Give the backbone structure.
Amino acid sequence: MSLEIKVPAVGESITEVTLAQWLKQDGDYVEMDENIAELESDKATFELPAEKAGILRIIAQEGDTLEIGAVVCTIEEGGAAAGSADKKADAPVAAATTAAPAATSDDAENPDSYAAGTASPAAAKILREKGIDPSTIKGTGKDGRITKEDAEKAQVSAAPAAKPAAPAPAPAAVVAAPGARNERREKMTSLRKTIAKRLVSVKNETAMLTTFNEVNMQPIMDLRAKYKDMFKEKHGVGLGFMSFFTKAVTTALKEWPAVNARIEENELVYSDFCDISIAVSAPKGLVVPVIRNAESMSLQQIEKEIIVLATKARDNKLTIDEMTGGTFTITNGGVFGSMMSTPIINAPQSAILGMHNIVQRPIAENGQVVIRPMMYIALSYDHRIIDGRESVSFLVRVKQLLEDPARLLLEV
């Protein structure tokens, strides 16, 4: 008896996932609770465990988009040794028998078998659209299974049969062009599609404006240079710029609560806590993990939490809960060399702070031209919630706290 393994429910707003990678192969013996595949939703990547021990029979292929509850694979009863014995027993029969249709017929009659002549979900969809009978296709997949690539090749080979051969002069003109002209197509991941939809939605549904200012980073750089060794020795973590910015933001949010608010239907929701989202560039796209109650955390606590979340992001180990919520976002384009940008709001939040690179620039100070390490900062905000006075005052307060970091400790 076989057990169907289905796509589990992973969140209220998630209706489909993409099968990113099989961790086991068809026919492998798997233990109960052993991870057999990686599924990617529009928010995170998570692993699919085996719900019982047995022989894995793959149904969905890598790259397939599956709805919640769709069957991904089945697990048949049997031990590791038995599974190997079955494969060895099948090999002589296949070698000695030339009547391939008989094997295909037997497999088709058994709904738990996925052998020759059976198309994967993606391949079956292509063949249906093109009106091609799967029985006319010779599969190159496991045990003769028809793969997506087989179906695509069948389209190409089937086209000339329906009409006279097309003349070949047109491609010759392209080949004659100097230099390589290759193109590559990749299916958008669920995460990338969601990012695209959210960015367009924010631009279309909010009254987004951006205000700018600049910060003299010399005081913070001097403070770090003086105490960074003692800080790391005592707390076991480096003292970075992000903890100063997070503390400055949480202090300013208390004074300008509209910047920490959001719109829900016809109401404004004000939060008396600061859950700060930190934008992190992960291998599969931009993710925004959240530091909960950052207003009550010390510099060392913030630094430690940032390291934990950033490490998980780069390893694709962030959970949906760790990326859900957030009342305000900080993004640092400066690590990539950005001088100035207008960051897009992370909906349903009402504002986002953009940090940029630090550049030595001449500025006027006490009537004298001096060289200082300067950073441009940008606050993009939803003008439906935040007025110009509030946005500008908020950014000025952040600048004030960063240029005089003692205020962060004294809370003045």
User: Anything to note?
Assistant: The CA atoms of residues 290 and 325 lie 7 Å apart. The radius of gyration is 29 Å.
